[in-house]
Predict the 3D structure of the following.
Amino acid sequence: MPNPVVNKASTEWNGELFTGSGTTTLETSGKATFDVAWQSRGEQEGGTTTPEELIAAAHATCYAMQFSNMLKENGTPPTQLNTSAAVTFVAGTGITGIELTVRGTVEGIDAATFDELARKAKETCPVSQALAGTEITLADVQLA
């Protein structure tokens, strides 16, 4: 049985929701600290990061890893995959959807098989599974 791997992040928040702000730190890697504030989350994009942007980063990364492994298992390892995730948040409602896109350079695969594996990767990616209560769509699949 593989050893469990635990990753950690933390947030320090100062003040109340609408006028407060904070920082989120990637503790396991120590690679980054991000400013966070409500304005970027619920009022207008940009300025600071948001939980949804961090979820999008995690989902795009996990999806790329899952899809690359499925392509390898198919005998058609990818040269390159470019993935993105767009997480929509509505104040008062929450996360209303996630849209994944992928563009890939893969030798020896036809578009139908690429599309089929892209869809299976969406369903089996561990982050997709963790977010199963949210509608996740695969909006754009392109084979270069």
Observations:
- Residues 51-73 form the longest helix (23 residues).
- Residues 9-43 form one domain.
